[in-house]
């Protein structure tokens, strides 16, 4: 492959970032990248175990003289969110990412970059490949997990019996100079309704929502960005006030944990009411553009003539539209002690028309299990009242509780202060971290997080600062060496 980063420092982790970028590794498609990790370990003569969910555990012996020290675990997830521009022909099942370097900023061409959490995966591969004689370290254990972006799928099923460490660096983190201290739990709720079709009648129109910025459903949820699925629900709910129509097809969003940027619906409007629907949608669009002028100035809604052979029944149409319109979305409660931190929120991430049903997929996040349970009950009730007969509720993904007196966290803060003269900032995050799962599976684990500066995760404008990437890699190596003292 043609490397674009290997003239930059540090060469080893940047090389591995390019290597994994060439391997498709979206959620549920991690077999190839897990095999690459295991093959790399084998070439380096290291122990490696791959389980049935393609999680990989690798062990590296300590630098000679430090074998007696307790082991250190490093962890990152190998899957990425597959988001692309609607006009992109990128195939996430077989195409590698096209990386673009502009100054010190790395991004991908028309797709997500996968720095979440490719940056951590590449760090770990580089540490596996590093010269132990030049890099003093205790016994190292590496955990590469799968399916993090779709509900901690790998971590939840992980057998931890061969992991001995009770000190850990979590690398699904950042930005530089920030250490996470706690994270929210999460739960998925999917509404569905069987499809019932009839021959199409009336005028067929295509309604498209475009130009939203989207974002991460945790980090950007307080930005109150436009959600394309909720916007489509509002447009169609209002269109129903001026005309009868039927859905023929509807889709929106790509991942339940990404704020959706685009949505499309094809509707069949009763004869003689086409213009009334167009005018109503135009009026609501103008209102939305005014409301979202600060957060999503590029919002557009287009209505064009279309074709369809069949349309959904009136009952199915009404249920889907009212589900989109009425099911709550966004922040429900803010933390009164930590400014800017949500306690509970939800994101209506994906709407799909499948062969036999239509689904509406939402993700809830909360640092409070009781509030989460109440919100799940609330959302399920609203969905059923809207007419969605089937509701699937996923497993609770545990929150990561605050650990008072963490020696790992205090050492990182001390070293950062000595090197930069600045205080390392502690951050409670609304996003879900697998650290909650590991703290339950491996009680007593002392965890610190480290990560470089990156941004716009789960969107096509995702980026990573490679200068920060280099600094954090060196800091991590120094931190691990310090554990030998």
UniProtKB/TrEMBL annotation:
<keyword id="KW-0645">Protease</keyword>
<dbReference type="Pfam" id="PF01546">
    <property type="entry name" value="Peptidase_M20"/>
</dbReference>
<protein>
    <submittedName>
        <fullName>Beta-Ala-His dipeptidase</fullName>
        <ecNumber>3.4.13.20</ecNumber>
    </submittedName>
</protein>
<feature type="domain" description="Peptidase M20 dimerisation">
    <location>
        <begin position="208"/>
        <end position="293"/>
    </location>
</feature>
<dbReference type="InterPro" id="IPR011650">
    <property type="entry name" value="Peptidase_M20_dimer"/>
</dbReference>
<dbReference type="InterPro" id="IPR001160">
    <property type="entry name" value="Peptidase_M20C"/>
</dbReference>
<dbReference type="GO" id="GO:0016805">
    <property type="term" value="F:dipeptidase activity"/>
</dbReference>
<keyword id="KW-0378">Hydrolase</keyword>
<dbReference type="Pfam" id="PF07687">
    <property type="entry name" value="M20_dimer"/>
</dbReference>
<keyword id="KW-0224">Dipeptidase</keyword>
<dbReference type="InterPro" id="IPR002933">
    <property type="entry name" value="Peptidase_M20"/>
</dbReference>
């Amino acid at each position: 492959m043609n490397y674009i980063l290997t003239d930059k420092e540090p060469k080893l982790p940047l090389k591995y970032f390019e290597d994994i970028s060439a391997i498709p590794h979206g959620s549920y498609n991690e077999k190839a990248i897990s095999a690459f990790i295991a093959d790399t370990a084998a070439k380096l003569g290291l122990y490696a175990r791959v389980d049935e969910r393609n999680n990989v555990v690798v062990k590296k012996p300590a630098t000679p003289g430090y074998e007696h020290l307790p082991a250190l675990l490093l962890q990152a997830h190998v899957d990425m969110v597959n988001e692309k521009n609607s006009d992109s022909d990128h195939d996430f099942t077989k195409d590698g990412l096209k990386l673009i370097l502009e100054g010190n900023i790395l991004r991908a061409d028309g797709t997500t970059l996968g720095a979440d959490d490719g940056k951590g995966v590449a760090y770990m591969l580089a540490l596996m490949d590093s010269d132990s004689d030049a890099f003093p370290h205790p016994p190292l254990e590496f955990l590469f997990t799968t399916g993090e972006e779709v509900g901690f799928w790998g971590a939840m099923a992980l057998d931890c019996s061969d992991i001995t460490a009770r000190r850990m660096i979590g690398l699904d983190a950042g930005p530089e100079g920030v250490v996470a201290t706690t994270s929210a739990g999460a739960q998925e709720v999917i509404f569905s309704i069987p499809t019932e079709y009839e021959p199409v009648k009336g005028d067929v129109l295509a309604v498209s929502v475009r130009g939203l910025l989207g974002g991460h459903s945790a980090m950007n949820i307080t930005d109150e960005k436009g959600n394309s699925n909720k916007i489509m629900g509002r447009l169609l709910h209002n269109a129903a006030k001026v005309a009868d129509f039927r859905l023929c097809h509807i889709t929106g969003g790509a991942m339940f944990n990404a704020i959706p940027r685009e949505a499309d619906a094809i509707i069949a409007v009763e004869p003689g009411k086409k213009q009334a629907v167009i005018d109503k949608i135009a009026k609501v669009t103008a209102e939305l553009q005014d409301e979202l002028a600060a957060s999503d100035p590029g919002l557009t809604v287009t209505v064009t003539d279309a074709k369809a052979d069949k349309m959904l029944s009136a009952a199915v149409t009404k249920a889907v539209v009212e589900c989109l319109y009425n099911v709550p979305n966004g922040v429900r409660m803010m933390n009164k002690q930590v400014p800017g931190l949500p306690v509970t929120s939800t994101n209506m991430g994906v709407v799909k028309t499948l062969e036999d049903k239509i689904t509406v997929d939402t993700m809830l996040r909360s640092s409070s299990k009781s509030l989460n349970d109440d919100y799940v009950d609330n959302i399920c009730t609203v969905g059923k009242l809207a007419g969605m007969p089937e509701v699937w509720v996923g497993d609770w993904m545990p929150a990561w509780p605050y650990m008072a007196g963490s020696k790992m966290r205090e050492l990182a803060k001390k070293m950062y202060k000595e090197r930069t003269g600045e205080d390392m900032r502690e951050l409670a995050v609304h996003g879900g971290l697998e650290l909650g799962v590991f703290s339950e599976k491996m009680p007593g684990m002392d965890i610190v997080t480290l990560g470089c500066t990156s941004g716009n995760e789960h969107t096509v404008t995702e980026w990573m600062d490679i200068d920060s990437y280099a600094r954090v890699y060196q800091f991590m190596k120094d931190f691990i060496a310090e554990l030998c003292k």
